Amino acid sequence: MNSMLYPKTSRTRRIVDMNGLWKFCFDPESEGLKNNWKNGLDPKRTMEMPVPASFNDFFTDKDSREYTGDFWYETSVFVPGEWEGKNIGLRFDCATHRAVVFVNGEKIATHEGGFLPFTARINKVVKWNEPNRVVVCLNNELSYTTLPAGSTKVFSDGTKMSKPFFDFYNYAGLQRPVRLVVTPKDEIVDFSVKHSLEGSDSITEYKVTADSDKEILIQVYDENRKLVATASGDKGVIRISNVRLWEVRDAYLYTFRILLMDQEMIADEYEEEIGIRTIEVKDTDILINNKPVYLKGFGKHEDSEINGRGFNLAVVKRDFELMKWIGANSFRTSHYPYAEEIIQMADREGFLVIDEVAAVGFFESLMNFMEASTGKQTAFFSREIVQTETKANHKAALSELIARDKNHACVIAWSLMNEPETTSKSAVPYFKEIFDLARELDPQKRPRTFAMVMNSTPNACKCYSFPDILSLNRYYGWYNRGGYEMMEAKEAFIREMDQWQELGLNKPFLFTEFGADTMAGIHKLPSVMWSEEYQEEYLRMQFEVFDSYDFVKGEQVWNFADFQTTEGIMRVNGNKKGIFTRNRQPKAVAYVFKKRWENLPLNY
Ligand code: GCB
């Protein structure tokens, strides 16, 4: 069974870190398979490549940076003979966007989707007490069926180019850690928890899946490592008296220790830190532990200088410090699942996370956010291939996401798509299947949402009945009537909000995007678009609108930081809607947010 558990060392489990410099080469002719590169890359064309990282921004030539097609990585890992008799797996935290893995020349795994982990069991091919050759063929091409979606253009000389249906740069590579994971034959494969409250106690329904019929024990420890509850069996309930709940920006994590027992001997041991909280949508409120919350925060990206989308714990740490400084309490993992370490940090810091699957680009346009408001239609969901292959990939990615993140206290909602084209009826059955699947798979039955593009208005959108929380991406005063037209932008914004109000949906609304591109350091009096002054004026207008509708339960500005995009006339070396620069320094408007967010009522 393929386990999505985060790799950990315990008395029964071992990990070998495989990060570092790997061999790397491009394969524009897709000749690697025929030429048996699975047995070793051609030394004449290989170079060294750091893992984890995106390959793109290391290069000084454009062909390499923009490379689209197959590309290969190779390393070797020594597997000690003392692990004979254990399960040996190779765990890729992500391989963007698809991978075929070979060990000692044998194909052992394939995986589609570049933002979720997979583990390949290598027992059948492993060589004990020897280095084992690991070769991975990746591919970063986009199509209608990929998550994220896009297209691939081919020039007259055969060179390929990514044409995303989204603006963030199509970074690729082994962007997150790779590890050898050693687990016992009798193995804990998965577990899930669902909490409810009874007075000052918590009741956790749990379920453990194991590749074994050995006895299962659960022990729960508090933060002082004091045992507070125990249970046995593969499912049941755990009561914690006088529970210390996980609260927004005031986290508390119990350690759930799961044991497989062979008489007195421990056959497998796995521990995870779990925050105990409830999450519910009631009327227009989002309730955490039965208390209403207002989301303050950001749409983000995994994006930084040189590393691209490569996992960088130092940047992650800085981001959390900035989010705390500014008074935020939440973020959306726009537009793909983030590294597990980020979700763990959110658990530890008490942030609320809207966890998004990489279903972005479901509107055939690089600039969908602009073109949507022109009334353009691309009939994305009318394509048969979308209703078959894209949907299958979407379901697989969603299943992996929920399997990976379902126990995290910080995850309070699933975002099932970003800015899909909801104006045609063909979207409806697709939405139904995806929304139903999320409900079915999540033991905690978290609210589901999707981020709605500008033209998903009450009049035009065919899918607004699906989400439990409505998430609006709105750019009144930027893409729509920017600059001196701001007053009209505000009127149009209010008109739309009034229409939502009239529908009486009785559900919470969030703004998951609003923002204005701003070049840090450009000052202009009076303001012009792109100046720091305009960003501030634009945002003050948004706040006035948000604050006049009581069903608005949160604001996540676009974007936390400036980020890299595909080049084009709309972007000046990237998207500049950051409240912070790409180097994580504040623009002037950061102080406006800090003041607003720190002064919203305490309960928020
Ligand atoms: C959007 C997209 C986001 C873009 C943003 C923008 O609507 O969801 O990915 O980056 O607009 O800044 O244009």
TrEMBL record:
Keywords: Glycosidase, Hydrolase. It is an enzyme of class 3 (hydrolase). InterPro entries: Beta-gal/glucu_dom_sf, Galactose-bd-like_sf, GH, Glyco_hydro_2, Glyco_hydro_2_cat, Glyco_hydro_2_CS, Glyco_hydro_2_N, Ig-like_fold. One of its GO terms (biological process) is carbohydrate metabolic process. Residues 17-184 form the Glycosyl hydrolases family 2 sugar binding domain. Pfam families: Glyco_hydro_2, Glyco_hydro_2_C, Glyco_hydro_2_N. Residues 279-600 form the Glycoside hydrolase family 2 catalytic domain. Residues 189-277 form the Glycoside hydrolase family 2 immunoglobulin-like beta-sandwich domain. Its EC number is 3.2.1.31. GO terms for molecular function: beta-glucuronidase activity; carbohydrate binding. It comes from the Bacteria. Belongs to the glycosyl hydrolase 2 family. This is Beta-glucuronidase.
